[in-house]
Design goal:
This protein is mostly helical. Helix content is 78%, strand content 0%. The two termini are 24 Å apart.
Length: 151
């Protein structure tokens, strides 16, 4: 009798069902978390005022403004697949891989940067550092589910 069977007084089939539901709920919660974090900067697409609210600093240089607006758009392209993956299981692993790559890439760039970052950028670093383990757990759970489904 495994732990779930003992706790819930259910047989092996019921325990597998509970485990499957917990795994599904966990992955969905992490997808929502990842989407929320990646979609938050999308408001910067609206322009200089929105970017100033996001980062606590004005970006009046047209080139910098253009790059930050493009960054906002790209975050939408990371966050949207995470939301789609809530309903489309086939999107989950690719969406998680993209989100993990984005987060790890930013953490590495931040760590290697010689610049003194804005406080808002440091906050992004800590948010990304906090969400990375959750994204990795969701990736592991989905990888396990996919391999179990292949049997």
């Amino acid at each position: 009798m495994d732990g779930l069977e003992a706790i819930f007084g259910i047989g092996a089939t019921g325990a597998a069902c509970v485990t499957s539901r917990i795994r599904e709920w966990s992955v969905r919660a992490i997808l929502v978390l990842g989407a929320a974090i990646h979609l938050a900067p999308v408001t910067g697409f609206a322009g200089a005022d929105a970017l100033a609210r996001l980062y606590g600093q004005r970006f009046d240089d047209p080139t910098t403004l253009l790059l930050l607006q493009h960054r906002a758009l790209l975050f939408g392209l990371i966050g949207a697949p995470l939301l789609i993956a809530l309903k489309q299981r086939s999107w989950r692993l690719p969406a998680l891989i993209i989100a993990i790559t984005s987060v790890v890439g930013f953490l590495l760039l931040y760590g290697l940067s010689a610049a003194q970052p804005l406080a808002a950028i440091t906050r992004v670093f800590w948010i990304d550092a906090a969400v990375l383990p959750f994204l990795l757990v969701a990736w592991a759970l989905e990888t396990k589910r996919a391999s179990e489904g292949a049997r």
